[in-house]
């Protein structure tokens, strides 16, 4: 049996997939100031310290208010490229080998930043990472649920010339009072276009929103899903459909979705045999990337070796990859667990 220290090392060196990551949530304070400066944008905060001091959230909306302010420094293709590349470099160093990342086009379109500027900057960095390190990726365009159905349809129209670069669509932002059913027709159009669907549900919203994600939007994956555990019929249905839950431990702690890491429901999800995965959500705001999320679970929730193994495997099983690619990565996970600790 491995010791806790050995588990920490193993979590760092094992290959991982990240399935729930908002690109705009990787904007570190230093980079925010740097990009703001070159774009002649005056931030509300005078220093990195002052900005970081504002990262105290009591709920999702507190965070979102800052998140939308932060992303307003992104104007040019090179800004989107630099942001994406900074994230990819960080997680490459953490042995993340596959990423599926969200971007929020409406958060930029509203400020007059054209769709092509956003997606070209992002995909340039992703293709470079693939060439340099063999990192694989998928891009997910997310709709902002506090905006209208009409706005989501307009965004989908703008995305149509770029669908070869987009694998799936998501639904994020303020969950309460914006149930999945509000977007049933938009997601039907996305399905008709052959796009995968994953939506944030059960982060703050009730189990009924997770049911809607399943029964009305017919999702391929669920982002968060914590509150699904309040309804045993719902967890049985998620299990029956073998849907992956993209869980975000440090995010849940920072946004007061859970009271402590020790009481985080991810181990309960695994006990129920749900395909739970570990992800960082908005790492620049929540205090850590992939390895820090695993670290918190190992140190504060006493994650076991078997749980760690299942989480690593689930991340690839739930990825939007071909069976051959999945099998390749799953074999690498097995190798990492079989290998002796480096002395
Ligand atoms: N955790 C989260 N929940 C909902 N919308 C988001 N947008 C960025 N991060 C989010
Ligand atoms: Zn999220």
TrEMBL record:
<feature type="binding site">
    <location>
        <position position="200"/>
    </location>
    <ligand>
        <name>Zn(2+)</name>
    </ligand>
</feature>
<feature type="binding site">
    <location>
        <position position="282"/>
    </location>
    <ligand>
        <name>substrate</name>
    </ligand>
</feature>
<dbReference type="InterPro" id="IPR001365">
    <property type="entry name" value="A_deaminase_dom"/>
</dbReference>
<feature type="domain" description="Adenosine deaminase">
    <location>
        <begin position="15"/>
        <end position="335"/>
    </location>
</feature>
<feature type="binding site">
    <location>
        <position position="20"/>
    </location>
    <ligand>
        <name>Zn(2+)</name>
    </ligand>
</feature>
<dbReference type="InterPro" id="IPR006330">
    <property type="entry name" value="Ado/ade_deaminase"/>
</dbReference>
<keyword id="KW-0862">Zinc</keyword>
<dbReference type="GO" id="GO:0016787">
    <property type="term" value="F:hydrolase activity"/>
</dbReference>
<feature type="active site" description="Proton donor">
    <location>
        <position position="203"/>
    </location>
</feature>
<keyword id="KW-0479">Metal-binding</keyword>
<dbReference type="InterPro" id="IPR028892">
    <property type="entry name" value="ADE"/>
</dbReference>
<feature type="site" description="Important for catalytic activity">
    <location>
        <position position="224"/>
    </location>
</feature>
<comment type="similarity">
    <text>Belongs to the metallo-dependent hydrolases superfamily. Adenosine and AMP deaminases family. Adenine deaminase type 2 subfamily.</text>
</comment>
<comment type="function">
    <text>Catalyzes the hydrolytic deamination of adenine to hypoxanthine. Plays an important role in the purine salvage pathway and in nitrogen catabolism.</text>
</comment>
<keyword id="KW-0546">Nucleotide metabolism</keyword>
<keyword id="KW-0378">Hydrolase</keyword>
<dbReference type="Pfam" id="PF00962">
    <property type="entry name" value="A_deaminase"/>
</dbReference>
<feature type="binding site">
    <location>
        <position position="281"/>
    </location>
    <ligand>
        <name>Zn(2+)</name>
    </ligand>
</feature>
<feature type="binding site">
    <location>
        <position position="22"/>
    </location>
    <ligand>
        <name>Zn(2+)</name>
    </ligand>
</feature>
<protein>
    <recommendedName>
        <fullName>Adenine deaminase</fullName>
        <ecNumber>3.5.4.2</ecNumber>
    </recommendedName>
</protein>
<dbReference type="InterPro" id="IPR032466">
    <property type="entry name" value="Metal_Hydrolase"/>
</dbReference>
């Amino acid at each position: 049996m491995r010791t806790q220290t050995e588990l920490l090392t193993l979590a760092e060196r094992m290959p991982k997939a990240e399935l729930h990551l908002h690109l705009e949530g990787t904007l570190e304070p230093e980079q925010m100031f740097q990009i703001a400066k070159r774009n002649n944008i005056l931030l509300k905060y005078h220093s990195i310290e002052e900005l970081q001091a504002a990262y105290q959230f009591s709920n999702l909306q507190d965070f979102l208010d800052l998140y939308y302010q932060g992303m307003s420094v992104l104007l040019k293709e090179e800004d989107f490229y630099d942001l994406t590349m900074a994230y990819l470099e960080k997680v490459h160093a953490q042995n993340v080998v596959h990423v599926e990342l969200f971007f929020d086009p409406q958060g930029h379109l509203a400020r007059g930043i054209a769709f092509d500027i956003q997606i070209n900057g992002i995909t340039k960095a992703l293709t470079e990472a693939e060439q340099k390190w063999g990192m694989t990726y998928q891009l997910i365009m997310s709709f902002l649920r506090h905006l209208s159905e009409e706005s989501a349809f307009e965004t989908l129209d703008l995305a149509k010339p770029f669908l070869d670069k987009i694998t799936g669509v998501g639904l994020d932002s303020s969950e309460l009072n914006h149930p999945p059913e509000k977007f049933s027709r938009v997601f039907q159009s996305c399905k008709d276009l052959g796009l995968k669907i994953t939506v944030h549900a059960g982060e703050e919203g009730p189990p009924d929103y997770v049911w809607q994600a399943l029964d009305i939007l017919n999702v391929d994956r669920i982002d968060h899903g914590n509150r699904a555990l309040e309804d045993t019929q719902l967890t049985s249905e998620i299990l029956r459909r073998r849907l992956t839950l993209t869980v975000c431990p440090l995010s849940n702690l920072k946004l007061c979705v859970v009271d402590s890491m020790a009481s985080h429901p991810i181990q309960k999800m695994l006990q129920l045999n749900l395909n739970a995965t570990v992800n960082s959500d908005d790492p620049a705001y929540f205090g850590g990337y992939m390895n820090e999320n695993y670290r918190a679970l190992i140190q504060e929730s006493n994650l076991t070796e078997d749980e760690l193994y299942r989480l690593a495997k689930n991340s690839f099983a739930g990825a939007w990859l071909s069976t051959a690619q999945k099998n390749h990565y799953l074999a690498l996970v097995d190798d990492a667990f079989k290998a002796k600790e480096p002395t």
